[in-house]
Amino acid sequence: MGNDAPGRTGNDRPDRSDQQLEVRAITEEELPVWDRAIARGFLRPHVGDGTEVRRLSFQPGRYLAAFDHSDGGRCVATFRSYDSELTVPGGAALPVDAITAVTVNSTHRRRGLLSRMMCRDLAAARERGSLAAILVAAEYNIYGRFGFGPATRGHGWRVDVLRSGGLRADLPVPTGGRIDFLTPEEVRKFGPELHERWRLTQPGAITRPAVWWKLQTGELTLPGLDWKEGFTAVHRDAQGTITGLVRYSIEDIWDGAYPNCTLHVQDFLALDRPTANALWKLAFSVDWVKQVCALNIGIDDPLPLLLNDPRGAKPHEDNFDFMWLRLLDVPGAFAARTYAAPGRIVLQVTDPEGWAEGRWALETAADGTGSCRPTEEPADLALGVSELGSLYLGTESAVRLAAAARVTELRPGGAAKADLLLRTPTQAWNPDSF
């Protein structure tokens, strides 16, 4: 599920004179009207009742809505959050507030509803102990106002199988391993445990709730969203332990009597490089497939270099910002991750809500640990909490943000010093919408 359906703009300020709009948490009994409102907000026909699906993830106080009492109490805006974990550099799991299902009907934009729901949720999340909040933004100019900044990117490849020559024969693969196809029931059985192991190896990855697996495997469906069974294969090592998974669909296209099919990779999890190579070999060996599309894999994934001719891989046209992050506890968040180099930098941070406001000294040690504490020392870099969120996982560059006038160097070399401490060998990546 994504965020921010059409119908909102950056000018979403509360109208204090409008006393007919009530923002509150819904009850479980109100899920049907909430479900209808979210379908309207995401421009989807309300062709069925998704209440039973939403009931599985319902938590009192975490499903918010706005009701217009001048229109009989109609539900005109929706908002949901749930507790998740975000893997940070070094492998720690950061407790975060995952925000989704954000809609405001086009009839009620610019009336402060998003601001009221967001501010209420973020304050509650901080009180619960969440160190950050995350979301996926469909519209770029909305969430910076609430302190969110782009923290991961989506990235992918389209590979012409014939032109690329397929995968190189000299790639290492596990000795004694095997690949098996799974039924949807088996995916639900084995997939969650593999993902739990995998996500702690990938900065930027988040937890997958149980209902995620039910929706992805067709046990549950949301009305208006088609599900078709594809193909899921797992790699097992010589001891029978599952070390990787690939889930894909086939676009069945023929050029007259000649097959011209495209394989679309939907999920790719590998605990090690040899397992990844074995799964890619499978994908490139499927009969009739002329193109392999992996439209959301890590920016650092070496897929083109695995090919006999890397020029057979072309970047997918949608190289886009994906998961956004908002820090709620600066000392806690920066103490949780690790760092590649020892050093010290002082950051002057502005935050409309005040949670990250102040001057912070980030100090990192040779063993990779770090701390972030308030200080009165002169700052090296001035930035907003949104930009701090973009830098936190190490994917964005302070030098790049300075060139775009998004951060300000208060001392020469301040941006480069920040990059030295914050950048990571492998960029953060989150494959999951939510």
Head-to-tail CA distance between termini: 5 Å
Residue runs with pLDDT of under 50 for 5 or more positions = 6-17
Shape: globular
Percent in helix: 10-25%
Number of strands: 23
Subunit structure: Homohexamer; trimer of dimers.
Organism: Kitasatospora cinereorecta
Binding site for acetyl-CoA: 102-104, 110-115
Active site: 143, 434
Description:
- The protein is of the alpha+beta class.
- It has eleven helices and 23 strands.
- It has helices at 31-41, 51-55, 113-128, 161-164, 184-199, 210-216, 273-283, 330-336, 385-392, 398-403, 414-422, and strands at residues 21-25, 63-68, 74-87, 93-104, 132-136, 149-150, 153-154, 157-160, 178-181, 231-236, 242-251, 254-255, 258-259, 261-270, 289-294, 313-315, 320-321, 323-327, 343-350, 358-364, 370-374, 381-384, 407-409.
- A seven-stranded mixed sheet has the order 1-2-3-4-5-18-6, sandwiched between helices.
- The radius of gyration is 23 Å and the shape is globular.
- The termini are close together.
Summarize the model shown.
The protein has 434 residues and is an alpha+beta fold. The chain is built from eleven helices and 23 strands.
How are the SSEs placed, and which strands pair?
Blueprint: E1 21-25, H1 31-41, H2 51-55, E2 63-68, E3 74-87, E4 93-104, H3 113-128, E5 132-136, E6 149-150, E7 153-154, E8 157-160, H4 161-164, E9 178-181, H5 184-199, H6 210-216, E10 231-236, E11 242-251, E12 254-255, E13 258-259, E14 261-270, H7 273-283, E15 289-294, E16 313-315, E17 320-321, E18 323-327, H8 330-336, E19 343-350, E20 358-364, E21 370-374, E22 381-384, H9 385-392, H10 398-403, E23 407-409, H11 414-422
Parallel strand pairs: 4-5, 14-15, 19-22
Antiparallel strand pairs: 1-2, 2-3, 3-4, 5-18, 6-18, 7-17, 8-15, 8-16, 9-10, 10-11, 11-14, 12-13, 19-20, 20-21, 22-23
